[in-house]
Specification:
The protein has 431 residues and is an alpha+beta fold. The chain has 3 domains: 12-147; 153-260, Butyryl-CoA Dehydrogenase, subunit A, domain 2; 265-430, Butyryl-CoA Dehydrogenase, subunit A, domain 3 (Up-down Bundle). Helix content is 50%, strand content 13%. The strands form 3 sheets. The chain has a 4-stranded mixed beta sheet with strand order 1-4-5-8. Strands 2-3-7-6 form a 4-stranded antiparallel beta sheet, covered by helices on one side. A hairpin with an 8-residue loop joins strand 4 (198-204) and strand 5. Helix 5 runs antiparallel to helix 6, helix 6 packs antiparallel against helix 7 and helix 12 (359-383) packs across helix 13 (395-402). The protein is globular, with a radius of gyration of 22 Å.
Length: 431
Amino acid sequence: MGQKFQTQAINDEILEALSLKNRYNFLNNNLMSILTQEEFGFLRNVQRFCLRYEKKNDITHGPEEDVYDWIDDFGKEGYISRAHPFEEIDLNYEEHGLTVEMMRNLAVDMFDPQFAMAGGATVLAINPLHWHHEDMPVRLEALKDLVVGDAPGCICITEPERGSDAVHQLTVCDEQDDGSCILNGDKIYNTNAVRSKWAVVYATAEKNNGNKMAQFLVDTSWDGWNCERVFIPWVPKVYLGKEHLENLRVPKEYILGGVGKGREYLFEGLVPERIGIAIMGICECWGSVAHAALYANMRKQFDQEILKFQGVGFLLSELWAKTTNLTLALLKFCEAFDEKVEKFGGEDKIPKNISQAMVSAASQLKFHCTSLCKDVCYEAGNLMGGAGLCDNTLMQDYIGISRIQEIVGGSRQIQQYIMSLALRTLFKMSV
């Protein structure tokens, strides 16, 4: 499979069986009866590109490789984001939407989960630019840079003292007479920030006042942008940042949403963001189950394949069943979301009432998928014994990245809080 490792711990036959091609085959054999012909066709196209790319570039997924080097090539193929058609930058993707994004992620995540995570952070910067470019050349230039892979992007919401409390921010924006704004404050845990050319940044005209938030596009080469890396050992190839904004001037044309618009613009992106994280979680489940299923059917102990032992076979069957069932739920959500946007959205916008109606469902899926991901990745690795812990396969990446998915994009407790509020609303609607 081209894997580079310090010491080979798995025999050649099993390593070959764990190739990306065979893992894709395992995934496809599970999904071909679930997906539509169009969905499956797009999935296969992305898979074919990943297979060729891995072979042509001798990708080993080893520790020395920089996943950001691959962004340009994936972007040129249209595989950084398919959330929208991007007609405004003359791409006109026929296959697009949340369901297509799920297919893209299934292929890319199995290729390399840390690369998929970095790409997912760029998508978070793409969405607000798509919705609020207003045909301004500087915004369209930034949007195209991100979509075609010329530069990674990031979104800066979280702050050192605010965590998941996204609306009571301390980063302030001061409006100037010429229409520009001056930003001062600190952000943290922002995926890609260290490597990004473009950042979508939130600030407020009055500390702790969510009604006075604003949304900005920032060129990270500007004076006042100071960024250092926050190293997360579970995702060693992904660059998260801590940013200190010091008198950073944002020209008028880079203000995506002025004071009073920031909170609205923040929340319009939460449903796609949380579903995006849920998608990543279920993709990591499939990657782990594929590894474990292939391994358990070949690895012998006591003269028989370990899958035949109930302790292995029954647990692996449970992981497989839960992954399949939650995939169906996530797929249904994505298809319903796309249908509603097409029917009611117009110009590829997300109608406010649709976004609000699907907030609790997005939190449910983000909560459930990331929780399952944490369990499936660990248990699948555990079933593989030492082979699931060493550096001979991508299992170490799956186990590592699964540790953080419950936290990113709003912690587990935040999702539970949102769901509890939804239950209160449902009560009032029902009684």
